[in-house]
TrEMBL record, chains A, B:
Names of required cofactors: Zn(2+)
Entry's Gene Ontology molecular function annotations: metallocarboxypeptidase activity; zinc ion binding
Its EC number(s): 3.4.17.19
Species annotation: Paenibacillus baekrokdamisoli
Pfam families: Peptidase_M32
PANTHER family (alphabetical): CARBOXYPEPTIDASE 1 (PTHR34217:SF1), METAL-DEPENDENT CARBOXYPEPTIDASE (PTHR34217)
Residues engaged in binding Zn(2+): H270, H274, E300
Name of the protein described by the UniProt record: Metal-dependent carboxypeptidase
Manner of cofactor binding, per the entry note: Binds 1 zinc ion per subunit.
Active site positions, chain numbering: E271 (proton donor/acceptor)
Length: 505, 505
């Protein structure tokens, strides 16, 4: 590498580090806003966040960054870069091109529009008034279509351009295939479950369960999973989340419901799964934009693996039920088998975030199909409520009584996050496929869970997934781990096995 | 004002707002570091802080900022500015000139040196090894002398240039006068107290006092003072502090000692006093660098007013003692008079931060006299331990057994904060002088305290002090409130009255 190229590489890496500093500072500010920042300081704090974000955007779209990228992409130069720097160049180029293609004025209009729309959505949902939100939703769709035009469309499906932001490389063609396979199996399975005479009892889950004991048990389970409290913390917030500020500072939150013994617990395990990913990214990636999860889908695979595959399994409760009982003396006097079945009730319902592990995927497929219609077929906001209700009836056998429990239930569209929903089900599918390999490569996998020896599982996932951060794409990762591309059959097989047992089908 | 000047004013105000955004973001990051940020994230976080600080320094020393100032300072332009903008120009000019006079390389060397020295000081203090620290202290003194040369010296006293950074306009000449007056009265008063046969009993203060009850009582008192919990919060940290991020977000911390019933309480009231100042700065100053306390001395006057004048007064405990007793059933069965006297024990001691309200000032005077010798007489680091011990013997009648409890006890010098110490006693003097006026202007002042009606006192201070932020200088403020400049006699009179009663002199 020439002296000049070596200088350019240093400037490039320094710029990335600067960008990363702003991202981390903004991460702390957002965490703070959601975990107890005083209300009256919010207005000024929003401006601070706006100013820092603008500075970050300026760094990310700086003309010199484009020039450095062009130089580093020259084959002779690129070939001499380390693997990490090569990927950094590729990733930065992708982000850079996406960002500079949007005229700053358009970007700013969009930021203002979506921030207004989020408040309006909240009001519309509360008042069950879709009409007041419809106009804004159409505007957001129009902007998203403009972005698609500016970013460019590959091979015909406009929706692919949006998908790519959350799950790099994912296409409508592939999702049609995997979601099709999933829907075909899950709709009848869900119906068979509903018809089973062996419905679990769940009433005992709803008593008063002291918050302090819930917290103490959640912390205990996080420790068992290998969550590193010297590199993270657990707080409370209205909507639980995980945020990886850097691998040495990964924070999660939960929300304790005192009339539910498992709600906060499964929430904590879920966010804990996200956190294990972020805490175990290789030290070599620190200070680069690769020090984060590779996609929303892979991230979600880790939260769902820990929450559902592990946390809602029989071996897990065979080991930990007695600890839970000790935390709530005289409150859980039913057998572990009944407890396990109660935490795995399947019940088609209207609200996604309250759905069980099985029907959850049908909620996602509905949203996916609607988003496709919007961007590939030009469906308008006015048509969405009817479309929504029809699909809920068809796939889940339930029908919303009003739009608040229907098309207005999720925040995503008001923020313009079209293409995000599929990540949730991709997470379930990745998790099942990875579990399938795990069961072969750690042959005593379920014994480890039953012994409460969860650390080897964390180590295995670190080796296969966590350490790489964004160094591998989702498809590279899933092929390297499991030997083949994403395959929905693993999720189907996992769900069939689990629920045929629980519902004695 | 011409269109051009009006544009310049906008650019200037926008730059100030940007600087303020960085200050606020850094404020949140520091608060976070001190209230529970995970240890393993610190290294990366330090870099983030370094990058943001560098950006702030760049904004504060931007050549265009200098050009805008020059234009706005032209008499015809300046005359047309609002009062706030005039003061903003003056303040910014002062900071700007201080900053640009230091060559960036020198500034960076100094930042590295003092950050090393702080760690070294900590080690030296722990190991009682002044020799290992002496070389660094000499270096820091040399840098400070270079800064004095670069900043310039007015009227002969080199130390004045350092004082001005913490207490604008304060001089050695004035401090010699006020501290002289103070020392002359306090040394004999302290001796008379020590000789009194009427020493308060204090053993009952030291029992096990449950942390939760201490916290609940501290929160109760903060509410009584008018601390706005929608514009602030109370957390825990190893060293209590207050930080005003913006007037709508002012955070304080405390540290609960379970074997001491008043330590955390008086700490909380102290920081609460700082917080009332920051929460009640006028909305008109938000987004400008004037939205903060006008000087360290005035800030300290407010924390000490609430902690000592109010919190350690008899009327206060006549009102609140029964609440304290209720928080600790069966633990405080002594009369209120004894409790009041116990919280006001005077005892000459070696450690400043543990000193009582009276002898505290002698600790400060010793540091002041030593700092003057360093910068005005060229005294070297090697001479400080002996000097320190002599002065402790002379003023307080006690002598350190080693340097850890002597010259090594405070962090300030390792960070180069020469000129800071006087603020603490200035705070006591300002507080006493303001109290004197308060007693006249709110004639039922002590009755209000005895009734637990503290809000009118907060309102009076808001009107006289808090609302102005940095819009008035300390001396403008004290003259506007009390009709005369700083006068140590008020503190002397206050202390004599209080302690002659307590010790029956």
């Amino acid at each position: 590498m020439t002296q000049n190229d070596s200088n350019i590489l240093s400037l490039f890496l320094e710029q990335i580090k600067q960008m990363k500093s702003y991202e981390e500072a903004l991460g702390v500010l957002y965490w703070d806003l959601r975990t107890g920042a005083p209300r009256k300081g919010m207005e000024v704090r929003s401006e601070v966040i706006g100013n820092l974000s603008a500075q970050l955007f300026k760094l990310s779209t700086a003309p010199e960054l484009g020039e450095w990228l062009t130089e580093l992409e020259k084959p002779a130069v690129y070939a001499e870069l380390s693997e990490i720097n090569q990927r950094l160049v590729t990733e930065t180029r992708k982000e850079y091109d996406r960002s500079i293609k949007i005229p700053p004025k358009l970007h700013q209009e969009y930021v203002v529009l979506t921030s207004q729309a989020e408040s309006l959505w909240e009001e519309a949902k509360e008042k069950n008034d879709y009409a007041s939100f419809e106009l804004y939703l159409d505007k957001i769709i129009t902007y998203s279509n403009q972005f698609i035009d500016l970013w460019g469309v590959k091979e015909g499906s406009r929706y692919d351009t949006l998908l790519d932001a959350y799950e790099p490389g994912m296409t409508t063609a592939e999702l049609d295939k995997v979601f099709g396979g999933l829907r075909e199996k899950l709709v009848p399975l869900s119906a068979a479950i509903a018809a089973s005479p062996h419905q679990p009892k769940t009433d005992f889950l709803k008593q008063t369960y002291a918050k302090e004991a819930q917290k103490s048990f959640s912390l205990f389970i996080l420790k068992q999973m290998g969550f590193d409290f010297a590199a993270g913390r657990l707080d409370e917030s209205a909507h639980p989340f995980a945020t990886g500020l850097n691998p040495g500072d990964v924070r999660i939150t939960t929300r304790y419901l005192i009339d539910d013994v498992v709600s906060a617990l499964f929430g904590t395990i879920h966010e804990g799964g996200h956190a294990l990913y972020e805490q175990n990214i290789s030290k070599d990636l620190i200070g680069t934009t690769l020090a984060t999860g590779t996609s929303m889908g892979i991230h979600e695979s880790q939260s769902r693996f820990w929450e559902n595959v592990i946390g809602r399994s029989k071996p897990f409760w065979n080991r930990y039920y007695k600890d839970l009982q000790q935390h709530f003396p005289n409150q859980l006097e039913i057998p572990v088998e009944d407890f396990y079945r109660a935490t795995n009730v399947v019940q088609p319902s209207l609200i996604r975030i309250e759905a069980d592990e099985l029907t959850y995927n049908l909620h996602i497929i509905i949203r996916y199909e609607i988003e496709k219609l919007i961007f590939n077929e030009g469906v308008k906001a006015s048509e969405l409520p009817a479309l929504w209700n029809e699909k809920y009836k068809e796939y889940l056998g339930v029908e919303p009584e009003n739009d608040s429990e229907g098309v207005l239930q999720d925040v995503h569209w008001s923020g313009g996050a079209f293409g995000y929903f599929p990540s949730y089900s991709l997470g379930n599918m990745y998790a099942a496929q990875i579990t399938n390999t795990l069961e072969t490569e750690l042959p005593n996998f379920w014994e480890l869970v039953e012994e409460g020896n969860l650390l080897p599982i964390k180590e295995w996932l670190t080796e296969k997934v966590y350490q790489y951060g964004k160094l591998r794409t989702p498809s590279e990762l899933i092929i390297a781990i499991t030997g083949k591309p994403l395959d929905p059959d693993h999720l189907v097989a996992y769900l069939e096995k689990k629920y045929k047992d629980i519902y004695k089908l």
